[in-house]
Specification:
Shape: globular
CATH class: Mainly Beta
Number of domains: 1
Number of strands: 8
Structural class: alpha/beta
Strand order of the largest sheet: 2-8-7-4-5
CATH superfamily: Cupredoxins -  blue copper proteins
Oligomer: single chain
CATH topology: Immunoglobulin-like
Length: 151
């Protein structure tokens, strides 16, 4: 009986770890020189304390020619923020500084680069409509997807 207690405790811990990892709190996106993300829809859990976004640019072109980032907003704010991003210019990474409509944004990448950001999970609510897009001029029409927050 004494030997079975540590085994049971170990199994309980493994089970609890499996439940904790069931909440998807990480987003990994790849982008390329064809103005594409590798996903059109991504999901995170509403229970996440923090959300991590990792962006990879698997292309070869420099960021001045084919830069990519990820900007997260509500669906309603996506187009106005993309327009404001162009006005923000390259010096600001095509992200308008201090824009409260932006939930999160990565830095602009060139081919072969990657970046990662983390933001509070409480910024996202289950049942709301969110978008992710690239704010490099002309990219948001093609490089745009839906962020789904699961309860």
């Amino acid at each position: 009986m004494k030997k079975s207690i540590p085994v049971l405790v170990g199994l309980a811990l493994l089970s609890a770890g499996g439940l904790a990892s069931a909440a998807n709190c990480s987003i990994v996106l790849d982008s390329n020189d064809r103005m594409q993300y590798d996903q059109k829809s991504i999901e995170v859990s509403a229970s996440c304390a923090t959300v991590t976004v990792e962006l990879k640019h698997s292309g070869k072109l420099p960021k001045t020619a084919m830069g990519h980032n990820v900007v997260i907003t509500t669906e309603a704010d996506a187009t106005p923020v993309a327009q404001a991003a162009v006005k923000a210019g390259a010096a600001n990474g095509y992200v308008p500084a201090g824009d409260k409509r932006i939930i999160a944004a990565t830095k602009m990448l060139g081919g072969g680069e990657s970046t990662k950001i983390t933001f509070p999970g409480r910024a996202l609510k289950a049942g709301s409509d969110y978008a992710f897009f690239c704010s490099f001029p002309g990219h948001s029409a093609l490089m745009r997807g839906k962020l789904v927050v699961k309860p």
